[in-house]
Design brief:
The protein has 2 domains: about 300 residues, ABC transporter involved in vitamin B12 uptake, BtuC (Orthogonal Bundle), CATH 1.10.3470; about 220 residues, no CATH class. The protein has a two-stranded antiparallel ribbon. Strands 2-3 form a two-stranded antiparallel sheet. The protein has a two-stranded antiparallel ribbon with strand order 5-8. Helix 1 crosses helix 6 and helix 3 crosses helix 8. The chain is mainly alpha-helical and about 625 residues long. Helix content is about 70%, strand content about 5%.
Length: about 625
């Protein structure tokens, strides 16, 4: 019982940090109609800037924390002005991807400035603790609780009783009406990003005190937990964001104590999926509207892959595709590639073909059917683990392994889609993200099957049954195998998208309500899209496992999903040629940027950000 009450206190402490992040997500979403995945990076910066003030400038902790939080607030505002406002009139998916690129830039820059190593964070209260009744309470827990309460109460009073706060709420409700009433909507947006940066910076300092350490990649997991808390309580409700953060913190703390830390994320995201399934608007969210009561998000359009869902006008960019003789000529040139490439570039070419197949799989469900999926790497992982385990145990031919991996990928995709197809807009993002993270947790924790963090080793080279069991052992053979599978997938997928099924998917993407009113069984068709997408992703996973001969859960984490989504959007949503082009471009870009050494990921993020800002509809256009 003592442990139980102590875990409740710990859960409330960490839950307060989640609540601060969740409020930041809720504010930005309400006013800017944007899911800001850079919020976690601002959280990380708050901790590091405070650490710098203490360790390098010699400031006491409190002034250093105030300076770090102030700088984080300014950075949050600057990111909006420099990178997000220029593309707010483009497709709604573009700002979301821009925040992902910003997160890559900020996190990579932090590694360059402060090193990738964990840094000790000054925590003068770390040794002070008391036993109160049946609970063990530390001074840091009390500080986090008190700071969280002060921030939440102050923000509530500000929003409710000040003119600026009421103007901010009016902007969230209806920005056009607020502007007609004299509210400076642009200033309210600036204030919103400033408040989000402020809350993120405070959260980063509190986490540094709690763990007595900080690390450059801390923004990703805590940012995801903040978004989870916002969705759990209801992203349309600031009280819901607070409740979601506290509830998530308590569940995580109890799970770690009684089941083990490996199950912490699995239980948290399973709880979220359960809530989304029965109450998509969250525990405290409004049923009718998706934003902070805002009319502009009532249709659940954020984010959307619809060509008609740009903020102010339809997308009219030219679309470039390959078909017929030009496509055949490109295929012939691609087949001749190993004759002019060295071993390294043969390997890169094989990776490009595999990720092209993965991008094609995501194009089916996100580009054509309009269902944003940010957990796609997990389906890739399901196929990889299926092929790896069957290959190690039975040494089956690659044809059977591709089919088996595709089937398990399709089954996993349908399971994920059962929740997602009932939802719309931003909630789909979290549903697919939660599904992907649950599968990733299974890869980590199901040690008897997946071998957990140790991964699966000794995956045998693929053998082609149609060629009498011929074993592929060289880079050129792997490349031709991957190219053959990609070509077949492109042909079949292209035919499917040109059929009535493909046209029905696009009809649902553009206006699901109208499609249903016309008699289209939308849920059935969307689950079909998830199945096709999962099959192709599973097949790509099988090729990936045999190429590397070793797989581990880290290969299929959320960052891989973001990269694949970027490939699809960068090439052009719904454009198969664009999906392949985007995948090849990013894989080659990753290799070319190796010349930048430690600056490679920063350069990578900048290239992505610039491409999204100046070509938000994709380099080859969306269709």
């Amino acid at each position: 019982m003592v442990d139980f009450f102590s875990q409740i206190i710990n859960g409330l402490a960490i839950g307060n940090v989640y609540a601060l992040l969740a409020i930041g997500f809720a504010l930005v979403f309400g006013v800017a109609n944007l899911i800001n995945f850079a919020q976690g990076s601002l959280f990380m910066l708050g901790g590091y800037l405070t650490f710098t003030g203490v360790s390098y400038l010699g400031l006491p902790l409190l002034p250093a924390a105030l300076l770090g939080i102030l700088l984080t607030t300014g950075i949050g505002v600057a990111l909006d002005w420099a990178c997000l406002r220029p593309i707010q009139r483009g497709p709604r998916i573009a700002p979301l991807l821009a925040t992902l690129a910003l997160a890559v830039i900020i996190d990579s820059s932090a590694e360059l400035i402060w090193s990738p190593n964990t840094q000790g964070f000054p925590s003068p209260l770390a040794d002070q603790a008391w036993t109160v009744g049946n609970a063990f309470i530390s001074a840091v827990d009390l500080l986090i609780l008190a700071t969280g309460i002060i921030c939440i109460v102050s923000l509530t009073l500000f929003l409710k009783y000040t003119w600026t706060g009421r103007a901010l709420r009016a902007t969230a409700m209806d920005p056009e009406a607020a502007q007609q009433m004299g509210v400076n909507v642009a200033a309210m947006r600036t204030l919103t990003f400033g408040l989000a940066g402020l809350l993120g910076g405070i959260g980063g300092v509190l986490i540094g005190l709690y763990y007595q350490s900080i690390w450059p990649t801390m923004g990703i997991p805590f940012g995801l937990k903040g978004f989870t808390a916002a969705l759990l309580g209801g992203i349309s409700s600031i009280p819901g964001a607070i409740a979601g953060g506290l509830l998530l913190g308590i569940f995580e703390s109890l799970t770690s104590s009684y089941l083990g830390s490996l199950y912490r994320n699995m239980v948290a995201y399973s709880l979220l999926l359960l809530v989304l399934f029965f109450r998509p608007q969250g525990l405290f969210g409004a049923r009718g509207l998706d934003a902070l009561g805002g009319a502009q998000a009532a249709a659940g359009m954020v984010p959307s892959t619809s060509l008609m869902a740009s903020a102010f006008s339809p997308v009219t960019s030219r679309v470039y595709t390959l078909a017929g003789w030009p496509a055949l000529a490109v295929l012939v040139l691609a087949a001749l590639y190993p004759f002019v490439a060295d071993r390294t570039w043969e390997h890169i070419g094989t990776l490009a073909a595999i990720f092209s197949l993965l991008a094609v799989s995501l194009t089916v469900v996100a580009g054509s059917a309009g269902q944003i999926s940010v957990g796609h790497a997990a389906l890739f992982g399901v196929g990889a683990y299926t092929a790896a385990l069957l290959g190690v145990a039975y040494d089956l031919p690659i044809e059977l392994l591709l089919v088996a991996a595709g089937i398990t990928g399709a089954i996993a995709a349908i399971a994920c889609g059962v929740v997602a197809v009932r939802l719309s807009g931003h909630v789909i993002v979290m549903a697919t993200l939660a599904s992907g993270l649950i599968l990733h947790s299974i890869f980590l924790s199901w040690i008897d099957v997946t071998r957990g963090p140790m991964g699966v080793r000794g995956i045998p080279p693929p053998s082609v049954g149609l060629l009498g069991g011929f074993s592929i052992t060289d880079n050129a053979g792997y490349y031709w195998l991957s190219l053959a599978v990609l070509t077949l997938a492109l042909f079949l997928t292209g035919r499917l998208l040109q059929s009535n099924v493909g046209r029905t998917w696009r009809a649902i993407r553009e206006d699901r309500l109208a499609a249903v009113a016309a008699g289209v069984p939308a849920v059935r068709y969307l689950l079909m899209a998830f199945a096709v997408s999962g099959f192709l992703a599973g097949a790509a996973g099988a090729l990936y496992a045999h190429l590397l001969a070793f797989i581990a859960p880290g290969d299929f984490f959320i960052l891989a999903s973001f990269i694949v989504l970027t490939m699809v959007v960068l090439g052009g949503l719904g454009n198969l040629t664009g999906a392949v082009f985007g995948a090849v471009l990013l894989i080659v870009l990753t290799e070319v940027l190796r010349e930048f050494g430690e600056f490679r990921m920063v350069a990578y993020g900048l290239v992505l950000l610039l491409a999204i800002m100046f070509r938000p509809n994709g380099l080859l256009g969306s269709k």
